[in-house]
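Lab notebook, bench 4. The sequencing result for the construct came back, and we need a structural model before the next group meeting so we can plan mutations. Quick request posted to the team channel:

Model the 3D structure of this chain.
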Amino acid sequence: MPLQRISVVSGKDHAYRRAVADGVHRALVETCAVPEDDRFQIITEHAEGSLVCSPSYLGIHHGRAPVIVQITLNRGRTIAQKKALYARIADLLFESARVPRADVIVSLVEVEKEDWSFGDGLAPYAVEEPKVPG
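Done. Here's the predicted structure in token form:
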């Protein structure tokens, strides 16, 4: 159910964008038990100057081409799972797309299961609350 929004600097080729997208999804599968076929991604390119990233934050020095990943997912992952996810994304993006680990910025947005519709106007995970008499 994760929705992945991936922002990259303009000018990267299709192979780069595909490697980044594949790496983010693979990390979710490996660390958070996301099903292989549960893949929903939005990849956007940003012109120079429109993807703003602090040159240095918390002792981490960023380059000029960060990859910013925002993942909306169901609430309930442990801190250990989140840390494993962040590390695995950074590792895979470095291995497959040569993105420096320092340039991989990840944010998680946690939601409840009933906050999703995957089409047809249906909410397959929304369970109606029982009515209280009286």
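Helices lie at 14-32, 79-97.
Will bring this to the meeting.
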